[in-house]
């Protein structure tokens, strides 16, 4: 349509905006190959692959990565269960508390992370709970629920109308209806929500600084390097790998929810 | 005849909204029963009460003699054909049809055989492997029908099942549903807002308005002997004549119903002014006014029609004017 | 064949449980909502209220021991000039970031919602999604690289012989500094960069809900494109902008990592909270500081709700 051409100024502004969002990340990719190891010199004096080998041989990076994967996996499972239950309840009826519940789910992500973090920390202190792997998971699962919930609730609404009635009409009890009708229809939304929850937890640093004791997740490891740089090239390589690794679940979630009513990232 | 569905004083209120209000109803076994009414009149809610998707706020529903109270939908031997068909998008056609048998625990070979049989009955042999999204509206409708019937329900509930189909397909499906019902011999309860559909298919029709049943009867009775102005107007757009006018003609002061096709041009009778003339094909509709009483008449094909503004003389047979004493 | 009106199939444990749940729908909802409500209610809200409670305690200035008595003394401390400066600085920064993000983000959202079709639609969608979801720390880190004295931005200014301009800019008090990486401008840029996607998505969602026929109707009624934008599109996009501003404002208010890595030594609320609860051990004051963003956001959300911004979330 002729009337539907974008004005040139708008095209340029939109293009620049998009470039602004992506160029800094691309820059990381260049720095991962630089030979310079004392400063952030640009342009890089030379290119090398040796930092990949150095990073590969660093046990602290591997430990941090492994801890992050464990935390993210368990937090995601908890968030999946809680988020699905919540979405099921909210989509099912217009019970009086549904606005309250929605607010409660969104609150941990709507309020600044530092508040969630310091609240949990002081609560752990008050209750004499020692910091551990599980205190990190506790915090992460809390703010991951909203991602699963947001992905599931829209899909639940669509399924819970006549499809559920049809299933019950044909003789399936509540459990069979869940197993054979609801679950297959919400599975992609749940998978997408789970992936995003994983990405969110894998990346989280603010709450984690308050709920982790001596444990180092990968973001905590990076934060240490940012505040007190020790070996910059290793940080560069880790940063690049983190970018690549987090893109996978995002792409996956996008393809899973494409063409549906759910916008994958809206939970964050 | 035994009673298939019986409502005794059944109400379904949502706060102040009386979706179904103190309805009594008795549907006989093997009957083709239509629930007719405008949207929001309570007909669909009544159907959902039978299926078990809604719970009555008052009154008692009996399904084949058994009190339905507390019995979930999946334990009621009635099945529903939904308005939007509600086919499971993740299952192919065969598994959709076999769903009821699957959850009942029938082995795969047996239930697939039954599903293919049901598909054959609705003339969809060979469509079993397709997804519902690959079917046309009419085909989906048949799948929904097969899926309900494969469970051998004692009563089949149909919620505006033909609403989404185009006119030609709808007429064809009306015929097929009617003959299907005759051959199966089970009770069909059919919800529609289309009076033509209700009249042509049903053994009996219940006309709903504002949550209540205003008239129950055979199609001919509903059509020719409406009991209230609402029924006269809604079922086939009769002329509803005001009580004063009817009193002048018959001496009984009550609303009268006069079918448009019963009014004809005549040598003697009532003097009327022509207000509008619309050519409908097989007939022509003339809007007239006798004094201050508006009326429509349907004239069969003819060479000469009156023109707007003409004064004509119209008349009708005395027995065609139906006096509605009840309203 | 027996013609049962009611089937008793599946009358096992699950079947009977299902019957019970059907007869008491409230019970089902209750059971569904119980675990998430308990988790969020006890763990999250419980902690939050514990924190709020602590803000009403005070710390003994000599012994450093928390006195568990109700007092508003700690809140009064927030109004000491040094503390109040922190609050003011943070709010100004949050407002600047919000305005900046709306200005940069609107064209992107507008183009994506109105003009991008097919492949470009997907590119724009992922183009916003990817930065949104890519690692927060990596994004911050990338700006440390960019803004460093020996980094790409300085290099560009030098290459274009515009070094004098940058130096003149950095000489301006408040927003300038020794180099971009230790200036308030640097902090602003990083905030803007990191929170920008949170602004774009709600605007895009709001714009996409505007039916095309409505714009055609406006054009049909004689509005020039600029008028259509001003009188139809922009008012309809406004809830999206407000929804986005909730994110950018709230996230900036509570962040303590970005100003710590890129910026001057002047502190923000988040840093104050972190410092008071950590090394200083003054939990009550940290708690009182934490209440500030909550209150600000509560007011903000209340205004936003009245503007109908929640529909665009």
Structural account:
The complex is a heterotrimer of chains A (268), B (327) and C (313). Chain A has helices spanning 8-31, 50-56, 59-92, 98-110, 113-126, 133-159, 162-169, 174-203, 206-211, 218-227, 232-257. Chain A is mainly alpha-helical and 268 residues long. Chain A is globular and about 70 Å long. Chain B is of the alpha+beta class and 327 residues long. The mean pLDDT of chain B is 90. The two termini of chain B are 31 Å apart. Chain B is elongated, with a radius of gyration of 23 Å. Chain B folds into 2 domains: 3-231, Rossmann fold (3-Layer(aba) Sandwich); 232-324, Nucleic acid-binding proteins (OB fold (Dihydrolipoamide Acetyltransferase, E2P), Beta Barrel). Chain C is 72% helix and 1% strand. Chain C has 313 residues and is mainly α. In chain C, a hairpin with a 6-residue loop joins strand 1 (58-59) and strand 2. In chain C, helix 4 (81-114) crosses helix 9 (184-208), helix 5 (119-133) crosses helix 9 (184-208) and helix 10 (212-220) crosses helix 11 (225-254). A two-stranded antiparallel sheet of chain C has the order 1-2. Chain B binds chain C through residues 63-66, 70-77, 103-105, 154, and chain C through 3-10, 18-19, 22-23. Chain B: Residues 5-235 form the ABC transporter domain. Chain B: This is ABC transporter ATP-binding protein. Chain B: InterPro entries: AAA+_ATPase, ABC_SmlMolc_Importer, ABC_transporter-like_ATP-bd, ABC_transporter-like_CS, Mo/tungstate-bd_C_term_dom, P-loop_NTPase, Transp-assoc_OB_typ2.
Defining traits:
heterotrimer; A: 268 residues; mainly alpha; MetI-like fold; globular; disordered C terminus; B: 327 residues; alpha+beta; Rossmann fold; OB fold (Dihydrolipoamide Acetyltransferase, E2P); six-stranded mixed β-sheet; four-stranded antiparallel β-sheet; 10 helices; elongated; ABC_transporter-like_CS (chain B); ATP binding (chain B)
Gyration radius of chain B (Cα, Å) is: 23 Å
Cα separation of the termini of chain C: 57 Å
Cα end-to-end separation of chain B: 31 Å
Element pattern of chain C in H and E = HHEEHHHHHHHHHHHH
Overall, the morphology of chain B is: elongated
Beta-strand content estimate of chain B: 25-35%
- The CATH topology of the largest domain in chain B comes to Rossmann fold
- The CATH level-2 architecture of the largest domain in chain B is identified as 3-Layer(aba) Sandwich
Total helix count of chain C? 14
Please give the largest β-sheet of chain C: 2 strands, antiparallel
The 3D shape of chain C can be described as: flat
What oligomerization state is this entry in? Answer: heterotrimer
Number of strands of chain C: 2
The helix-and-strand class of chain B reads alpha+beta
């Amino acid at each position: 349509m002729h009337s539907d051409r974008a004005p040139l100024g708008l095209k340029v502004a939109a293009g620049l905006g998009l470039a602004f969002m992506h160029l800094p990340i691309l820059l990381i990719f260049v720095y991962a190959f630089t030979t310079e190891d004392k400063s952030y010199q640009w342009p890089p004096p030379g290119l090398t692959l040796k930092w990949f080998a150095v990073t590969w041989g660093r046990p602290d990076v591997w430990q941090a990565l492994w801890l992050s994967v464990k935390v993210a996996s368990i937090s995601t499972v908890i968030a999946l269960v809680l988020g699905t239950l919540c979405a099921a309840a909210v989509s099912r009826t217009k019970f009086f508390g549904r606005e309250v519940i929605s607010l409660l789910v969104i609150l941990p992500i709507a309020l600044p992370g530092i508040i969630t973090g310091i609240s949990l920390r002081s609560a752990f202190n008050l209750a004499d709970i020692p910091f551990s792997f599980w205190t990190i998971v506790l915090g992460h699962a809390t703010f991951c629920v909203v991602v699963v919930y947001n992905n599931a609730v829209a899909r639940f609404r669509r399924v819970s109308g006549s499809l559920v009635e049809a299933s019950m009409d044909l003789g399936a009890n509540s459990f069979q209806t869940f197993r054979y009708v609801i679950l297959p229809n919400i599975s992609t939304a749940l998978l997408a929500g789970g992936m995003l929850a994983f990405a969110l937890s894998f990346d989280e640093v603010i709450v984690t600084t308050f709920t982790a004791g001596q444990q180092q997740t990968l973001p905590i490891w990076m934060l240490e390097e940012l505040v007190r740089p020790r070996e910059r090239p290793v940080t560069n390589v880790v940063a690049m790998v983190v970018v690549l690794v987090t893109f996978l679940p995002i792409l996956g979630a996008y393809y899973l929810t494409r063409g549906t009513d759910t916008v994958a990232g809206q939970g964050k | 005849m035994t009673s298939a569905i019986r409502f005794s004083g059944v109400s379904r209120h949502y706060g102040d909204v009386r979706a179904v209000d103190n309805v009594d109803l008795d549907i006989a076994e093997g009957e083709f029963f239509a629930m007719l009414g405008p949207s929001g009149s309570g007909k669909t809610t009544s159907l959902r009460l039978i299926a078990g998707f809604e719970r009555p706020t008052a009154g008692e529903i009996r399904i084949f003699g058994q009190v339905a109270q507390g019995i979930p939908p999946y334990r009621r031997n009635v099945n529903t054909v939904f308005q939007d068909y509600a086919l499971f998008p993740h299952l192919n056609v065969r598994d959709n049809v076999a769903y009821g048998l699957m959850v009942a625990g029938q082995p795969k070979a047996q239930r697939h055989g039954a599903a293919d049989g049901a598909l054959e009955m609705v003339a969809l042999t060979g469509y079993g492997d397709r997804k519902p999204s690959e079917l046309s509206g009419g085909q989906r409708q048949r799948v929904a029908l097969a899926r309900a019937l494969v469970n051998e329900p004692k009563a089949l509930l149909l919620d505006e099942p033909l609403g989404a189909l185009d006119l030609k397909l709808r007429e064809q499906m009306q015929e097929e549903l009617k003959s299907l019902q005759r051959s199966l011999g089970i009770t069909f309860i059919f919800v529609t807002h289309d009076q033509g559909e209700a009249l042509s298919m049903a053994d009996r029709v219940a006309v709903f308005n504002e949550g209540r049943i205003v008239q129950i009867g055979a199609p001919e009775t509903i059509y020719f002997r409406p009991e209230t102005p609402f029924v006269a107007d809604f079922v086939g757009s009769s002329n509803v004549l005001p009580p004063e006018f009817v009193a002048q003609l018959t001496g009984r002061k009550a609303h009268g119903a006069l079918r448009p096709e019963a009014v004809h041009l005549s040598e003697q009778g009532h003097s009327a002014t022509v207000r509008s003339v619309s050519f409908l094909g097989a007939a022509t509709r003339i809007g007239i006014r006798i004094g201050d009483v508006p009326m429509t008449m349907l004239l069969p094909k003819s060479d000469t029609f009156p023109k707007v503004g003409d004064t004509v003389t119209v008349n009708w047979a005395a027995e065609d004017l139906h006096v509605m004493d009840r309203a | 064949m027996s013609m049962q009106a009611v089937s008793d199939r599946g009358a096992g444990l699950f079947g009977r449980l299902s019957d019970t749940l059907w007869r008491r729908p409230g019970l089902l909802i209750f059971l569904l909502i119980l675990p998430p409500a308990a988790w969020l209610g006890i763990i999250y809200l419980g902690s939050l209220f514990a924190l709020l409670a602590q803000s009403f305690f005070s710390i003994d200035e000599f012994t450093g021991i928390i006195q568990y008595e109700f007092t508003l003394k700690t809140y009064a401390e927030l109004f000491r000039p040094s503390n109040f400066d922190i609050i003011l600085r943070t709010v100004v920064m949050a407002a600047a970031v919000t305005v900046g993000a709306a200005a940069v983000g609107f064209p992107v959202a507008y183009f994506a919602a109105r003009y991008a079709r097919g492949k470009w639609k997907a590119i724009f969608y992922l183009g916003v999604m990817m930065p949104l979801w890519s690692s927060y720390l990596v994004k911050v880190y990338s700006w440390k690289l960019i803004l460093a004295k020996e980094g790409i931005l300085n290099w560009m200014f030098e290459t274009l012989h515009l070094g004098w301009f940058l130096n003149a800019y950095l000489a301006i008090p408040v927003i300038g500094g020794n180099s971009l990486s230790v200036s308030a401008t640097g902090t602003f840029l990083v905030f803007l960069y990191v929170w920008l996607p949170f602004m774009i998505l709600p605007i895009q969602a709001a714009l996409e809900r505007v039916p095309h026929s409505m714009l055609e109707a406006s054009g049909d009624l004689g509005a020039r494109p600029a008028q259509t934008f001003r009188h139809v599109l922009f008012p309809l996009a406004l809830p999206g902008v407000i929804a986005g501003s909730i994110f950018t404002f709230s996230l900036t208010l509570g962040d303590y990592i970005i100003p710590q890595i890129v910026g001057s030594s002047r502190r923000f609320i988040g840093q104050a909270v972190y410092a008071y609860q950590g090394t200083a051990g003054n939990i009550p004051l940290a708690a009182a500081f934490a209440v500030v963003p909550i209150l600000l956001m509560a007011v903000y959300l209340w205004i936003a709700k009245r503007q109908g911004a929640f529909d665009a979330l």
